[in-house]
Amino acid sequence: MKTSKKMMGLKSLSREEQKKIGGGKLPVKDPWNDDGCGWTMCRNQFGRCTAFIEQCV
Prior knowledge:
- The protein is largely without helices or strands and 57 residues long.
- The protein has a domain at 26-57.
- The chain contains 1 helix and no strands.
- Residues 1-27 are annotated as: Disordered.
């Protein structure tokens, strides 16, 4: 005979907790190294803009 367990509700994660789980922060852009892009969400691992490349969705 199987016993049923009551599932508890999942805790909603804060934005900071999601960043920790997701792999951390984006690389910080150096102020003297301007690549001409204002988008901070489309940078690759080197801190360069990928807004006009297919990788940035």
